[in-house]
Amino acid sequence: MVLSFYRRNAWWLGTGMLLTFASSFGQTFFIALFAGGIRAEFGLSNGEWGGLYTIGTIASALLIFQTGRFADTVPLKRLAIIVLLAFAASALLMMGAKHVAVLALAIFGLRYCGQGMMGLLAMTAVARWFAANRGRAVAVAFIGFPLGEAVFPFLAVEAQGFLGWRGVWLAVAVFLVLVILPVAHILLRHGRTPVGEGAGEEAVGMGGRHWTRRDVAGHWSFYVLIPGILAAPFIGTCAFFHQVHIAEVRGFDLATMALAFPVYAAFSVTTSILAGSLVDRVGPTRILPFFLLPLAGAISLLSLPGGVWIWFAVLMGTGVSQGVVMTLMGALWPTLYGTRWIGSVKSIFSALMVFATAAGPGVTGWVIDLGINFPEQALTMSAYCLAISVAYFFVAPRLTAALGRPAPQAA
Fold this sequence. Notes:
Layout: H1 2-8, H2 10-22, H3 28-31, H4 35-42, H5 46-67, H6 70-73, H7 76-96, H8 100-129, H9 134-142, H10 144-187, H11 213-217, H12 220-229, H13 231-241, H14 243-250, H15 254-258, H16 260-282, H17 293-300, H18 309-337, H19 342-369, H20 374-403
Helix pairs in contact: 2-8, 2-9, 2-10, 5-8, 5-19, 7-8, 7-10, 8-9, 8-19, 9-16, 9-18, 10-16, 12-20, 13-19, 16-18, 17-18, 17-20
């Protein structure tokens, strides 16, 4: 039955996977690979590079918050094409940047289109297209993220050797226009609800109703979930962003470190698929107390002495938590808040995630400049994950109970 689901819905699942795969060029793991060349050419310290990245990313988060609602009103095909064209233009801007201000503008465009809108479009579409098997569908769409993390780091590191960092960004723009855009154009012709997955019906959330963005922002669940949901992308982004710094501090070879990304991807994909089935069986709220535990253990390893195998272990644990959290987010928001305004609702969390990944490199880079290297900061991050996990043991039952309550009667 499970295999039949994947075969029957391969077209729509593939659409979601393509969008998340294409987001790679705006993700921190990819942009951070060029930190050495960019810092050297523009004369930036770790803190200055992190601060510049933070400024561009925060600006992109503000725009996501304003434009995320278009996912509810503009046809997916049209919106995806617009975003992909803007994405390619941002890559060209990165390639030709000669001034720090232009560099910041390019980062803004890459982060807005890549980490922000491409993922938002993918997860919004899947949330609408699937109901009974939403967890499995989100897990498959999520595979595009780790697939990009497995493929592109090694290619980018190798390509920089003969193209230079600017030449790689030109190749990115060409790839987006000549490969991703045509494939997206074909796949998005069938942007409809697959048979047997809701028949176009909108799913309600807590209280048997559809939640608007204002409703979500006024409910306690929003403020309780945010600190935990953002922990994995915050910490993972910091580790990826400072991988050049980590290599320098720990004496790791950067090319060898890049080989750890396929391992990360394998753990992330496997965990995502398993988490998708688990979410469909037990519900997303019951998983909340557990998803940060692998990350807590993994990130603490950076503070220990040892060889480059430590980096591989860190990415394994990070991959497990990331696999769960991305599947969890894709299923949790429509489960709690319904699907009618899911694009608008998801834009809140997408913007906040971008804010978190913006603050991470800037804050940790500033701390590095103060003389506390990233491996020394890792224990604090691990303790934070453990504290959130303990808190969620008390939060999860309340959310589960809220899903079963009827809608309140009007006064």
